[in-house]
Amino acid sequence: MIDNAGKPTRKPRADAARNRARLLDAAKAVFAERGGAASLEEVARTAGVGIGTLYRHFPTRDALIEAVYRNESDQLVRAASELAASRPPVEALREWMRLFFNYMSVKHGMMELLDSLADGKSSLYAASGAETKRTIDFLVKNAVSAGEIAVDIEPLDLLRALGGMVQYGGGRDDEEAAAHALIDIMIAGLQAKRPR
Amino acid sequence: MIDNAGKPTRKPRADAARNRARLLDAAKAVFAERGGAASLEEVARTAGVGIGTLYRHFPTRDALIEAVYRNESDQLVRAASELAASRPPVEALREWMRLFFNYMSVKHGMMELLDSLADGKSSLYAASGAETKRTIDFLVKNAVSAGEIAVDIEPLDLLRALGGMVQYGGGRDDEEAAAHALIDIMIAGLQAKRPR
DNA sequence: TGAAATACGGAGGTGCCCTCCGTTTATCAA
DNA sequence: TTGATAAACGGAGGGCACCTCCGTATTTCA
């Protein structure tokens, strides 16, 4: 009775919008406190809605996380253009990788984003994942064009390596310094291979 | 009534030894098939013992994984001495990192080993984790002494980066080539910083 | 205003974690 | 050999989380 090209869509219900917003707020809080593996029932409780409501709005855990962190990853993508415009290609790349690490380690839930970089099979991150890929590809390509580095690696792998630092670096106090050191080393490695 | 320095310990019961072995076999099989997050109840079922028996032998999931993979990580440690004896320091390091990646990616359950590299709080891996740390430290130090590289990074971080490749590289077909590329880049980066 | 569309929310089935404890079995002393 | 006893077995059960389903409540629109 409803043809999917049809216009006659109702206005979305007020309670639906309200609950969706509540769930996002609650999820942000709970994920921040407990990490991305927190219980979805706790999220629902915190939001003051039933568990059924949570699942209607976000059919999978991934869908929820995706929604919560879409903003953050958008920010990351936007920062890339600014860096590219204002710095030498290699420095833009270096700085962006630092930003990437910070986002991942602070917003710990964003680690799930990395899973989507894998093969896109959990395709709910597909959007952000693809954008992230485009971003790092872009930055790397810039530096290559400028003759500053050579790449014989898929650029995303640089981010995967950083992901390992976040995942397995667990809470030491020099975490950030260590990540910066790794970034410098990887970039030095890429520079070492540039055409002379 | 039993003083803990006392000798009068009984011979361990035959069924206990048998069940322990069965559990290890079952765990190896189940972890290989389902990954390190497999259900412990399934392990017990596969082993043909009760769940209580599993928990008596291995009080935590970590303890079980540790036991299953202790052999493999021993092998890794042993390989390091051979490589160090037969190759130039940098090549020994390169080759060992390749081995490390292979072990991690094939025996997928070994990823849990990496968690122990963090802060030793889940101290059941403490033994293997500490040995792994000693091993990579040793290989790196050799290369530094030979003047082939300079390090301003904790050596373990190199393995963490590789861990990211395993964790987030999920099943692409060029996984191994990609890891080798990353290893080469990191080593080139370390070489770039060596004293001239 | 009231019918139809939409959303709510929690009960309930499933599966896993881990503990506890009554039953069974292997060891060892007599 | 025998039987007392330490040790091990194994599964029932409480708790928690996942996710589905559907009767009830609310909102929209004609």
UniProtKB/TrEMBL annotation, chains A, B:
<dbReference type="GO" id="GO:0003700">
    <property type="term" value="F:DNA-binding transcription factor activity"/>
</dbReference>
<dbReference type="InterPro" id="IPR049445">
    <property type="entry name" value="TetR_SbtR-like_C"/>
</dbReference>
<keyword id="KW-0805">Transcription regulation</keyword>
<dbReference type="InterPro" id="IPR036271">
    <property type="entry name" value="Tet_transcr_reg_TetR-rel_C_sf"/>
</dbReference>
<dbReference type="InterPro" id="IPR009057">
    <property type="entry name" value="Homeodomain-like_sf"/>
</dbReference>
<dbReference type="InterPro" id="IPR050109">
    <property type="entry name" value="HTH-type_TetR-like_transc_reg"/>
</dbReference>
<dbReference type="Pfam" id="PF00440">
    <property type="entry name" value="TetR_N"/>
</dbReference>
<dbReference type="Pfam" id="PF21597">
    <property type="entry name" value="TetR_C_43"/>
</dbReference>
<feature type="domain" description="HTH tetR-type">
    <location>
        <begin position="17"/>
        <end position="76"/>
    </location>
</feature>
<keyword id="KW-0238">DNA-binding</keyword>
<feature type="DNA-binding region" description="H-T-H motif">
    <location>
        <begin position="39"/>
        <end position="58"/>
    </location>
</feature>
<protein>
    <submittedName>
        <fullName>TetR family transcriptional regulator</fullName>
    </submittedName>
</protein>
<dbReference type="GO" id="GO:0000976">
    <property type="term" value="F:transcription cis-regulatory region binding"/>
</dbReference>
<dbReference type="InterPro" id="IPR001647">
    <property type="entry name" value="HTH_TetR"/>
</dbReference>
<keyword id="KW-0804">Transcription</keyword>
